[in-house]
Amino acid sequence: MILALNIGNSNITFGGYTPDGKLVFSSRLFADTALSSDELLYKIVNMLALYGAEPQQITAVIFSSVVPALTPRLREALRKMCECPTIMEVGPGLKSGVRIRMDNPAQLGGELLCAIVGALQYCTPPCVVANFDTATTLLAVDVTGALVGGSILPGPQCSLGALIRNTAQLPQVELEAHPRRLLGANTADCLHSGIVYGTAAMLDGMVAQIRAALEAPDAPVVATGTLPDSVRKACTTGIEYRETLILEGLYTIWKKNARR
């Protein structure tokens, strides 16, 4: 089994693949930067057991991380957990098949590269690839399959949290639920509507401008991460959502770099 892991700012996602590319399981943990290597090991081993998998079954590992505090602890946890000869870390030196036409390609987070690689398995470029975590990142991929740039915006949960922390009377609302109406008649409904429909309008506008920059008005949008279903439904832009997109990108990169 090939184990693929990604450490994002909010979550650790991981899944197990058979050598022929079948996803056996996938799961998600909260990315707590206070976790030690042993605590990470404990959580991963127990999650594997939940899906009927054991560390001894792991023959290779590939991971990416955008949280420097957790990266070395994950490396240590993986070394303790399994004795597989191959542990790949997404970064310089690994082939991805994606050209990065940006000022400093090394600044591109591993999970974003994996999202692009995953998206290109399902759509023909040009396309827009979106990753929703603490931040919302929109990436523009041109007709040649090269990353030409992107935008970073606050994620809806981040925006909501900032509003609640910095105001005296705004309540917490559940973003997964669809707003009862566009024009709220009470504070909670007004906040709910603003975050959901406001985020959707922002995404629609940004995607339209990115498509214009790509000169591709019908470029597909492939998304992953923690974007609430309510926001996706409120968008007028069609969004193909794939929960395991980053894991799929990780497995594809593993295939490109594995020694046969």
Describe what is shown at a glance:
This protein has 260 residues and is an alpha/beta fold.
Can you give a write-up of this model?
The structure is a single chain. The chain has about 260 residues and is an alpha/beta fold. The protein has seven helices and ten strands. It has a five-stranded mixed β-sheet, with helices on one face. A five-stranded mixed β-sheet has the order 8-7-6-9-10, sandwiched between helices. Helix 1 crosses helix 2 and helix 3 packs across helix 7.
What's the average pLDDT?
93
* Order of strands in the sheet with most strands: 3-2-1-4-5
Proportion of helical residues: 25-40%
Q: Report how far apart the termini are.
A: 15 Å
Uncertain regions spanning at least 5 consecutive residues: none
Order of helices and strands: EEEHEHEHEEEHHEHEH
Portion in strands? 15-25%
Beta strand count: 10
Q: Major sheet: size, sense and barrel closure?
A: 5 strands, mixed
Specify Rg, calculated over alpha carbons.
Answer: 19 Å
Total DSSP helices: 7
Estimated structural class: alpha/beta
Shape: globular
Tags for this model:
260 residues, 35% helix, alpha/beta, five-stranded mixed sheet
Topology:
Blueprint: E1 2-7, E2 11-17, E3 23-30, H1 37-50, E4 60-65, H2 71-81, E5 86-89, H3 110-119, E6 127-132, E7 135-141, E8 147-154, H4 156-165, H5 187-214, E9 221-225, H6 229-234, E10 240-241, H7 245-257
Parallel strand pairs: 1-4, 4-5, 6-9, 9-10
Antiparallel strand pairs: 1-2, 2-3, 6-7, 7-8
Helix pairs in contact: 1-2, 3-7
